[in-house]
Specification:
Helix content: 40-55%
Number of helices: 8
Distance between the termini: 43 Å
Oligomer: single chain
Structural class: alpha/beta
Largest sheet: 7 strands, parallel
Bound molecules: beta-D-glucopyranose
Length: 265
């Protein structure tokens, strides 16, 4: 727990499942923060509402659930407005929402490329833009945390649109970190490896596919949502107050070229 986070307000995009849900939960239940819990599609409303209800049970509103498409400028604005209307401020903005799909690149439909880029990269831009505008206007030394991936660095054949989006998130984040550092605004990425989330559920349910993935992790295990949430809390807190423009890899060593593990080469 980081006491400086208590009472602060965060927006978490894609907070109805997976990493976003875990980060929102940690902020609400362990850090005592207010959270705008964003979801996109109707099928995720229940999970977002359930998290909020559990946290609002003591009569004080700590969580507000907001439907928004973060690939649209109105979506990001809606999240900012909800934070300001409900809590009067925003201090931390986590751009987590992301999607992935698999296609050989020569068969990758343009619409699919555009969809993945729209959510994973344009969504990070629009969320960051809304947060930065507010931070600049109010002189807030705010924090932005962007969820990239080990694939901001590691090539991943048949996921070219995904890697393009995540590589984009990395350099976009470094650029705005530099642009706004003089105002005390910090921007960092978390680069998760293989984590147990719904995005990976089908893959990890297949023992062969799971074993294949584990082979790529020097530490020999899949990561947990809680491990990513812990990184998000640290990056949001003053404990990382001198850290900006960095990607924190939380990946059990996946990005360390595991095929060189035995000193071959
Ligand atoms: C992807 C996962 C994948 C992991 C490691 C993540 O960015 O979302 O599906 O297992 O990278 O390859």
């Amino acid at each position: 727990m980081y006491p400086d986070l208590t009472g602060k307000t965060a927006v978490v995009t894609g907070a109805s499942s997976g990493l976003g849900h875990g980060i929102a939960q940690r902020f609400l239940q362990q850090e005592g923060m207010n959270v705008v819990v964003n979801y996109h599609s109707e099928k995720h409303r229940g999970a977002a509402q359930e998290l909020a209800d559990a946290c609002n049970a003591n009569g004080r509103t700590m969580a507000v659930v907001v439907q928004a498409d973060i690939s649209q400028e109105e979506g990001a604005q809606k999240l900012l407005d909800a934070a300001l209307d409900t809590f009067g401020t925003v201090d931390v903005w986590v751009n987590n929402a992301g999607i992935e799909s698999r296609y050989p690149t020569h068969e990758l439909p343009l619409e699919e490329w555009e969809k993945v880029l729209a959510v994973n990269l344009t969504g990070v831009f629009l969320g960051s833009k809304a947060a930065l505008a507010r931070f600049v206007d109010t002189g807030t030394k705010g924090v932005i945390v962007n969820l990239s991936s080990v694939h901001e660095k590691v090539p991943w054949p048949t996921f070219a649109h995904y890697t393009a989006s995540k590589g984009g998130v990395k350099l976009f984040s470094e650029t705005i970190a530099l642009e706004y550092a003089h105002l005390g605004i910090r921007v960092n990425c978390i680069a998760p490896g293989a984590i147990e989330t719904p995005i990976n559920a089908a893959k990890f349910a297949d023992p062969k596919a799971l074993a294949q993935t584990v082979k790529l992790v020097p530490m020999g295990t899949i990561g947990t949502v809680e491990q990513i949430a812990a990184a998000a809390a640290w990056l949001a807190s003053d404990q990382s107050g001198y850290v900006t423009g960095q990607s924190l890899f939380v990946d059990g060593g996946m990005s360390l070229y595991p095929s060189f593990e035995r000193g071959d080469g």
